[in-house]
Amino acid sequence: MPQCNGNKKMVQYCLFYIALSFFSHLTFANMANTQKSTERWQQIEHHARLQTVYFHAWGGDPQINSYIQWVAKQVNEKYQINLVHVKLADTSEAVSRVLAEKAADNNTQGSVDLIWINGANFATMSEHSLLLSQWANYLPNFKYTDPNNNPAVTYDFGIATNGMESPWGQSSLTFYYDSATIKTPPETLNALLKWSENNPGRFSYPKPSDYLGMSFLKYALTVLHQHSSDEIKNQLNQVVNAKTKDKILAPLWQFLDTLHPTLWRKGSHFMQSSAQMRRLIDDTELSLAFTFSSAEIPAAVARYDLIPSIRSYAMADGSLSNTHFVAIPYNASHAPGAQVVANFLLSPAAQAYKQRPEVWGDKTVLIQHTLAPKQQALFTHHNTHPSALPIDAIKRTLNEPHPSWVKAIQMGWQARYGVSQ
Amino acid sequence: MQSSLQIKNLQLFRQKEELLSLNEHVNGGDILTIMGPSGSGKSSLLNWLIGTLPTGFSARGEVFLNNNNISELPAHLRHIGVLYQDPLLFSHLSVAGNIAFAMPKGNKKLRLEKIDNALAQIGLAGMANRHPDNLSGGQQARVALLRMLLSEPKAILLDEPFSKLDAQLREDTRELVFSQIRTYKLPAIMVTHDNSDAHAANGKLVTLKTAV
Amino acid sequence: MTVASKIEPLVYKSIPPSRYSWFARIVKLSPQLLLTLLIIPVLAGLVFVLLPAFGWAPALDQTQLSFDGFIAISNTPGITHMIALSMFSGLVSTFIAFLITIMILAVFFTSSWLHTIERLLSPILVIPHAAAAIAVGFLIAPSGMISRLISPWLSQWEMAPNGIFPYDPYGISIIIGLTLKELPFLLLMALGVLAQPELGKKLRSQHKVALNLGYCPLTAFFKVVLPSLYPLMRLPILAVLAYASASVEMPLILGPNTPATLAVTIMQWFNDVDLNLRIQASAGAILQLIITCILLLIWLGGEKLCHVFFRDSLTNGVRDHGGAFWQKITVVITTFVISFILLSLVGLILWSFAGFWRFPNALPEQFVLLHYTQALMQMGDALFNTVFIGISATFLAIAITLLCLEAEQLDNKPLSRITSLIIYLPLLVPSIAFLFGLVWLQQLIAHQAAFFSVVFSHLLFVLPYVFLSLASSYRRLDPRFSQVAASLGAPPSKVFFQIKLPQLFAPILIAAALGLAISFGQYLPTLLASGGRVSTITTEAVALANGASRRTSAVYAIIQMVLPFIGFIIAWVLPKYFFKSARA
Q1: Which of A71, C246, C271, C364 shows a CA-CA span of 20 to 30 A to A414?
Q2: Do residue C450 and residue A96 have CB atoms under 8 angstroms apart?
Q3: B205: domain CATH number?
Q4: What is the pTM assigned to this prediction?
């Protein structure tokens, strides 16, 4: 039953804070705020002690797995928290888990404490009220993300996070190629089409139920509308409108109709996952591929999983970018522990360590000017790998369309290309 | 031409140790009896004759059936019929099926007639469609004999074929088998433990010694 | 003998009557326990899939019965294609595996090669499906081992060519994978039947009789051995068919995805972020169940047809059905299958040590231990869980199986047909059809006891195999030993523990090794029952196979193979050691 009390208390705090935030410009309120929140956080840390936190996170990358192990060691030393990484093949497994628990009326003893999430999975969980809210924005380290001026940490694919998610890292769509076979890689979507026509069978994208495959389609859709009117561009940031949907998607299908016959397996079979794409590059079946975590490329070369002639680059017409988060299910057994872990993940030390290319290379969500000089110094790195994405390679970023587009694109794709003849 | 089975200069080895050596000639209708303690190589001799000598054994020498050298022929081309201790009837076939299995291919109706006649001759009339497991031990032995005979073998081996039958049945069955051998004038070799078998065979007796 | 007779009365006196009846009571109850353990989870799982299939899912705020799920399925693009692919790949792979099994048995029935082939093929049994699929994929891919061996000197390929395999639209790659995986299983099951002392001896003697009657060895096998052997292979064959029609790993890794097989699609619906798809997924699970049933019926129908068609030819006296020709074909096929498997294994091993390995090089540029050191560092917990769960589930399975078989002998009547069928229920009902329902159920009962849930789920799949492998040995125990012991005054419990179990030492060890192998290979049950909180080598391997490098996957696949291997080696060596000391 302590869990229920905790939840009630949380709600009281939330109301309190919402009330307070109206007066946040007043000095005394700020002082009270700080004092109250310090007290509150100490209490959370106190509850978190000796808790075992089950962190459900995709387990497909040894580098990321090692980083989470490092985190587990740190939180164990600092807070006596036993962090267990539950390695998922797909994040939706954890979503189903929480749903099954809700179905079984298990509202306090959930098996998932912390979950690595963003985009469509987050949209689903928040839609079904499966997440704890109004906690992330009260984490002590959240202030380093400059939340008032940084929508990237308060909006997930256009949906307000309402304190349900704490930001963890940032990624952008990065392309890579085998420089032994390609001298100049295509730098725009149009050039990519031309290049694929000239090099049939050497490019493809994962089947769009896959996150990365969908990202490629979103990138294409966004770029294809770069010269459209603002009215149309705005629609990409809103819930899909049944009336204009077909009109907006039409250029994408037109583009794919031309692209598909030039693809690997002539577009009659698509890769199952982004990892398979990486394997096919290594097998020299593909010559050009892309990823959402640019750091995996040099890391893969270091582990012999990719040949050393691989080079990374960003598209000149823009790179699709998004933030990934950690969230706590509404029925988590160890919510205080999970919050302490989330707060640690946001700490400058953890963020800086994560950004090191040899560790994970995941871009930090912290904003430099919020940090003390000593903390800023943690983020300076040296000697980059020849296969890594050069610093400042990303010339312009493209925002993720509203998550409802994912379903629209997927349905349309499935109907058009889902069954090959 | 009289049929015959001839064993020429046979030497049987287990690994490299010699088990037995033999030189015999059996005429059609005669029964050569071989006796000897366990391990003296009786069953190896039979296995060699039918072409299924297990690994670990080797042999030198030749076997002639009706003056044809069959030493190198595979088992199924030798035309030597064998009666074992157990009747070994096929349980997935009826009595008639067991016998038909053994007969050369041919007209279905003629074959069935032949089976019925043969069954009647050995006192099993009307049993054609019975399942072999439902027969008595003596009946099973007779079906096994019939099955072997109707496969039209050119020689017969008897591997202690009566040892599992009780005294009276043993005598009757033995009588039946021996009379058939004499009727068809087939050369036969019998391996047995039992002196009365040897006596009834009324032919040459070879006693094997335990290998040293 | 003197020692035994001295001890005998002492031990007898030390067993009070209460313990005697205690044993009998447990034994008598065990068949019911077995049935409860098997029926309830499967049925409850099915019910909890049926309800959402017809629209009842309170968690999704759906409490109105409807056919929406089924309507959605019928509107899914390519649904007939999916069903056809599932049926075709399941049926054809089972049929080919069965055919090759029979051909190998027929041709090598009397040859010492049979055991060599058995020894070469049995390792495949313990390779998890996912690992096998990856290994096969690497062999037949355009950049695969075969392609590398002929490039560039023969093929002129400097880069991997455009290919068809794997992922071919007709599911041929799936069929290759499934066939290679099921073939050793069927062969070992058949050899297990032939290893039964009485039956095996009878069939071998009958085969010899047929040879004496002039039948060529191949025909002799088909006309004499197969009719007696097949009924004992029927259940394993049906289990293989049921599995093949609904398997997920093979089609996921080797199959096409425009569209995929039905089972893979259902799996993806279940895992889709759109939770409302779960209604459709549950309906799909029911559809899968129906399809599997249809396939089983097709097989049984085919059996009947064969029976009618070939009944007369059994006794028509024809003795030489293409002897030499089929013999040669079988030798070629067997050689091909074995070299295919060996080449896959070589590929797997090469990958696990590979540094850079660019196409078309047949060998990696350098060999490194990095993949092993990295994997082993992260493997500790998973390794412990794998072994612990495997041993727990296997121990329970063996205990229940032995008690049930003992009950059968105490009551002096065999288990009813229905009971025997129910034992195979978890193998015949596609796991995708009831596992998701089972998880909902486990949530209701014990949502914190993840470990227990996993052991229990594994038990469901381990039990049938253990029963399958132990039952025949137990039933063929010479009853006279027990009778002799009983006449010496030994109570049933003593006969059981001191007479029967020691005689069954070797079969029990083999069953244990098989049980462990089955437990080690479980992916879906482990993942679902534990909510992912209990990681085993297999869950890690599949997660990595979906994500990381072929090199790391190869390491995990090899460790997955090594673990059950150790079990089998122990099972083979221990009895030999004991028998040797007994002989000396």
Answers
A1: C246
A2: no
A3: 3.40.50.300
A4: 0.80
